[in-house]
Design goal:
The chain is an all-alpha fold. The chain has helices spanning 2-18, 26-37, 42-70, 74-81, 83-95, 111-125, 131-146, 148-152, 164-180. The chain has 9 helices and no strands. Helix 3 (42-70) runs parallel beside helix 9. The longest helix is centred in the N-terminal third of the chain and has 29 residues, at 42-70. The radius of gyration is 18 Å and the shape is globular.
């Protein structure tokens, strides 16, 4: 974290002097965007930096749960029940430069779309969980999803950092989600 604070002090100057902004690979763009904002919005950036890892883990968990509950035909089942969503995911995949790493259409879903999928199929996918744990997981996902605009998208209108209460709640909800994963 100390290195990130250090880099955040100089990234704007370096980017203007060397004009490296257009050479960042796509997977580093959000990292550098967050670096630029770190000193101004440290809480927000900390939370935003957790999202990509959580998204990857959530995608893998959902994939495994689908396989466990619906077997090998889970892709066909979801595609039949949600044809427009699956088509959207596939269109997203077709635009990605890392097509060689794609496992299935879930790789085209955003964090918010993964949350929507889990909410839609939670009765099947989470049926082996204690009802209190299932409720805690869904509440945590819903809370993070409610703040998704801040967490996933470029910051344009943000004038101040997350307030302490929202920051602590988001940290707690992400911890609940991560412990489930």
């Amino acid at each position: 974290m100390v290195i990130n604070f250090f880099l955040s002090e100089f990234i704007n100057v370096i980017e203007k002097k060397i004009r490296i902004g257009k050479t960042f690979p796509p997977y580093l763009e959000s990292y550098f965007e967050n670096l630029k904002l770190l000193n101004k919005f440290p809480r927000l950036v900390e939370i935003r930096n957790r999202i990509p890892k959580t998204e990857i883990l959530l995608r893998e968990k959902i994939r495994k749960m689908f396989e466990r509950v619906f077997g090998e035909s889970w892709r066909k089942k979801v595609a039949k029940e949600l044809p427009k969503k699956v088509k959207k995911f596939e269109n997203t995949i077709n635009k990605r430069p890392d097509k060689g790493n794609i496992v299935d259409f879930l790789d085209g879903a955003t964090f918010g779309e993964l949350i929507e999928l889990l909410r839609r199929y939670h009765k099947d996918l989470l049926k082996d969980k204690d009802p209190n744990i299932r409720g805690a997981i869904l509440n945590a996902l819903n809370y993070v999803n409610k703040h998704r605009r801040l967490l996933e998208h470029p910051i344009k209108e943000q004038s101040e950092d997350l307030d302490e209460k929202t920051y602590n709640e988001l940290k707690a909800m992400l911890s609940i989600i991560e412990s489930f994963l």
